[in-house]
Amino acid sequence: MQETWLEVLRTACKAKGQRVVATMIGYSDAVVSAVLSGKYKGNLKAVQSAVEGALQGVTVECPVVGDLPRQRCVELQRAPRSTANPTAVQLHRACRGGCPHSLIAKE
To answer: Which of 46, 98, 88 is nearest to 64 (CA)?
Structure first.
Protein backbone atom coordinates (compact mmCIF):
# COMPACT_ATOMS: atom_id res chain seq x y z
CA MET A 1 0.00 0.00 0.00
CA GLN A 2 1.28 3.46 -0.93
CA GLU A 3 1.90 5.98 1.82
CA THR A 4 -0.35 9.00 2.02
CA TRP A 5 1.22 12.40 1.45
CA LEU A 6 1.01 13.10 5.20
CA GLU A 7 2.85 9.87 6.01
CA VAL A 8 5.48 10.80 3.43
CA LEU A 9 5.86 14.22 5.05
CA ARG A 10 6.16 12.71 8.52
CA THR A 11 8.73 10.13 7.37
CA ALA A 12 10.81 12.74 5.54
CA CYS A 13 10.84 15.01 8.59
CA LYS A 14 12.07 12.16 10.77
CA ALA A 15 14.79 11.27 8.25
CA LYS A 16 15.98 14.72 7.18
CA GLY A 17 14.68 17.12 9.78
CA GLN A 18 11.63 19.34 9.70
CA ARG A 19 13.45 22.50 8.64
CA VAL A 20 15.12 20.78 5.67
CA VAL A 21 11.84 19.27 4.51
CA ALA A 22 10.03 22.59 4.93
CA THR A 23 12.59 24.21 2.62
CA MET A 24 12.22 21.37 0.13
CA ILE A 25 8.46 21.84 -0.13
CA GLY A 26 8.60 25.64 -0.11
CA TYR A 27 6.92 26.24 3.23
CA SER A 28 8.08 27.43 6.63
CA ASP A 29 9.04 25.16 9.49
CA ALA A 30 6.02 26.51 11.39
CA VAL A 31 3.62 25.45 8.61
CA VAL A 32 5.07 21.94 8.54
CA SER A 33 4.80 21.74 12.32
CA ALA A 34 1.15 22.85 12.22
CA VAL A 35 0.34 20.36 9.45
CA LEU A 36 1.95 17.48 11.32
CA SER A 37 0.09 18.36 14.52
CA GLY A 38 -3.22 18.68 12.69
CA LYS A 39 -3.57 22.38 13.53
CA TYR A 40 -2.86 24.02 10.18
CA LYS A 41 -5.60 26.50 9.27
CA GLY A 42 -4.29 27.42 5.81
CA ASN A 43 -4.73 25.78 2.42
CA LEU A 44 -3.96 22.15 3.22
CA LYS A 45 -4.47 21.15 -0.42
CA ALA A 46 -1.59 23.46 -1.42
CA VAL A 47 0.69 21.86 1.18
CA GLN A 48 -0.37 18.43 -0.04
CA SER A 49 0.47 19.40 -3.62
CA ALA A 50 3.88 20.70 -2.53
CA VAL A 51 4.63 17.46 -0.68
CA GLU A 52 3.50 15.37 -3.64
CA GLY A 53 5.77 17.29 -5.99
CA ALA A 54 8.85 17.63 -3.83
CA LEU A 55 8.80 14.31 -2.01
CA GLN A 56 6.75 11.99 -4.22
CA GLY A 57 7.79 13.12 -7.70
CA VAL A 58 4.31 14.11 -8.89
CA THR A 59 4.36 16.35 -11.96
CA VAL A 60 1.69 18.37 -13.75
CA GLU A 61 1.31 19.72 -17.26
CA CYS A 62 1.33 23.51 -16.99
CA PRO A 63 -0.48 25.23 -19.88
CA VAL A 64 2.26 27.89 -19.95
CA VAL A 65 5.59 26.18 -19.22
CA GLY A 66 4.87 22.49 -19.78
CA ASP A 67 5.68 19.60 -17.47
CA LEU A 68 6.90 20.61 -14.01
CA PRO A 69 7.02 19.23 -10.45
CA ARG A 70 3.78 19.78 -8.53
CA GLN A 71 5.48 21.85 -5.83
CA ARG A 72 6.84 24.22 -8.50
CA CYS A 73 3.28 24.65 -9.75
CA VAL A 74 2.26 25.64 -6.21
CA GLU A 75 5.22 28.05 -5.96
CA LEU A 76 4.24 29.71 -9.23
CA GLN A 77 0.65 30.09 -8.04
CA ARG A 78 1.84 31.73 -4.82
CA ALA A 79 4.25 34.10 -6.60
CA PRO A 80 3.41 37.79 -6.51
CA ARG A 81 2.05 39.30 -9.70
CA SER A 82 4.74 40.56 -12.05
CA THR A 83 4.46 42.47 -15.29
CA ALA A 84 8.21 42.51 -15.91
CA ASN A 85 8.25 39.10 -17.57
CA PRO A 86 5.76 37.96 -20.24
CA THR A 87 5.86 34.37 -18.95
CA ALA A 88 5.05 35.57 -15.43
CA VAL A 89 2.03 37.44 -16.81
CA GLN A 90 0.86 34.31 -18.67
CA LEU A 91 1.31 32.21 -15.52
CA HIS A 92 -0.65 34.69 -13.41
CA ARG A 93 -3.53 34.59 -15.88
CA ALA A 94 -3.47 30.81 -16.33
CA CYS A 95 -3.33 30.09 -12.58
CA ARG A 96 -6.37 32.29 -12.03
CA GLY A 97 -8.19 31.50 -15.24
CA GLY A 98 -9.26 27.93 -14.84
CA CYS A 99 -6.10 25.83 -15.02
CA PRO A 100 -7.08 22.37 -13.73
CA HIS A 101 -4.05 22.32 -11.42
CA SER A 102 -4.72 25.70 -9.85
CA LEU A 103 -5.55 25.96 -6.16
CA ILE A 104 -6.65 29.57 -6.69
CA ALA A 105 -10.28 30.48 -7.26
CA LYS A 106 -11.02 31.43 -10.84
CA GLU A 107 -11.14 35.21 -11.24
So the answer is: 88
